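## retry 2 of 3
previous attempt timed out at serialization; input unchanged, resubmitting
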Amino acid sequence: MPSTLGDRVRIQAMGEAMHLAVRCKFRFDKDDAGALKPFGIRTSVGVFRPMDENYYSAACVHGGTYARMWEAWADMKPWIAPRAIAGGYGSTRGDDLGENRVAPGVGVLLPLTEADAGADAGLSQTRDAQVWWCTSIEKNEIVLCRYRFPEGRRYPFDRDGQPARRMKLSRAQWAALFPVQKKQDEQAAEAVAA
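## retry succeeded, writing output
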């Protein structure tokens, strides 16, 4: 980059380049984090961190190898949900990601029981699932939040205001959330094999 560029422009350009690399699924090796770190910029007018969690969240939505590299750098196993959705700013539909990594900003569809449907009638849900949004991840803990479904809204994938419900889960609790889904997947696999 030209040395005449100001810090703001340089930081913006580096951020856009990293977003492009993640969105377009550029190839990253697990040990590339060390090579990317020197490109980080920290000035009084802005910050560029190539290993920022925002890029990891984008990689979870778009796919590619950045997520795997980030997990190796952060020494973290991925949080995988059987049904994940991506809902961007102003999104009226949740893009179904299927079985996918979960990161802040990625939604998780949890099974909806009759008890849940009655008790949480004012909260976001689809026909068959509760809509929860990941707000933070750590090595051994994930936080999911569920938001109110305001009157007049037609789409369950909005997440405005403060969360109405919050779950902080360990890895064991996370695995226990999806036993029904695992059983259904196993039955479907057996049916296909037969």
